Amino acid sequence: MAEKESVQFPVPGFRFSVRIAGAGNNDADASFQEISGISTEVPVEEIQEGGENRFVHRVPQPLKYSNLVLKRGVVNESSGLTEWCKRTINSGFATHVELKNVVITLLSDTNKPILTWTFINAYPVKWEYSGLDASKNQIFIQTIELSFQRFEENIQNWRAAVQKLASLIN
To answer: Which domains does the chain have, with CATH numbers?
Structure first.
């Protein structure tokens, strides 16, 4: 009997956690419904060489990161993240900007880390609430955008999670 071929399956992206280092008694901040902005881009500068009409030189520039966007339903309890945003945004730069590391972890079905992104020296740059509409029955959403210096990705139990998922399907 031939050995089973290893099949690769994508990992679902709906189970994750967010931690903000130094954001109060409990660094974990829960109940985020959506996270976006985990991206990196290498911008290029185009330089046209005199007398060369067949192409332009494309020179890489420093990395560019988009803002990290966190969305969650508003609850009637304050959190370390909310307090940090209030202090940073409402101060009008009268005080120094607190830089914090934000860690987002993609979790397996047993809550074991699969992928971890650490956003270095993050700070809030936008704080927004969803619109109010009496004709719709929707959750009131808070959106927080964070700027950061860079991020690091760490693959932790990727192979184990993929193997477990494959064994469940087979």
So the answer is: 16-169 (2.40.30)
